[in-house]
Automatic annotation (TrEMBL):
One of the GO biological process terms: translation
A GO term from the CC aspect: mitochondrion
UniProt GO MF annotations: ribosomal large subunit binding
Organism this protein belongs to: Cryptococcus floricola
Gene3D superfamilies: 3.30.1360.40, Ribosome-recycling factor
Function field: Necessary for protein synthesis in mitochondria. Functions as a ribosome recycling factor in mitochondria.
Top-level division of the source organism's lineage: Eukaryota
Residue ranges with Basic residues bias: 44-59
Alphabetized InterPro entries for the sequence: Ribosome_recyc_fac, Ribosome_recyc_fac_dom, RRF_sf
Protein name, per record: Ribosome recycling factor domain-containing protein
Amino acid sequence: MRPFALRSALRAIPRTPRATPIASPALSSALLVRPFSSTLPTLKKNKHGQGAKSPKQKIRVTEDDEAGAADAEGAGEVVIEEVVEKAKGKMEKAVHWAKAVVFEGVERGRGRVTPAILDSVRVTIPDTPGTVHLNSLASVTVKGNTLFVEVWDSASLKQVESAIHGANLPGISPQRMGGTTLKIPVARPTVEQRAEILRQLSQTTETAKTQIRTARTDGFKALGGRKANGTDGVQKLVDEMCKELDEQMVLAKKEFEKA
């Protein structure tokens, strides 16, 4: 067949129309390119405000805060209790000391002789800081109305004798017996001596009250001031201890009146 006839035959064959491509919506949106903008995007504000916490976060924070406050409050109660107990210990020590001295003073006013008469004696030893109790250097015994002080080291006899004189105990005047012994005759106290003993007991009571007030001051400082929590408890102890000492002195005066 001639070329011309072949081309004519091909043109006579009906052609199938091309299918128009259908674009996918997802693909179309993916291929879309947004136009460039020089304006910064505006962020949607949190309805709770900048830096605000969601209700759930607020609840969590509130619970934590309350727990922390409870812990702090509990710790504060422990601190207050410790401070009050410490102050109470100091005050009780002062009261016990004063009551012991008052008791022995009353016994002395009655004319009774006991080793406790020399309990207030403190001895100064060379090259030794502070003072030491007489019982650390000697033994004290009673025979009738006489005290005998047996010094364990003869080198300390002079210091012990000076300390007994320096204590200014009414009617007490030591006498040497040998190189280690002091003899102290104790006569029944006179009216003047009983008055002096009573005066010394009153002074002892006031000294104890001063120690109690010092413990109160230390307690107030530890609690954070006079108006801080827990100071009422400390002041209550002060009132009770001072009242106890006053009552003790009232009884002592009555006993001296009987003597």
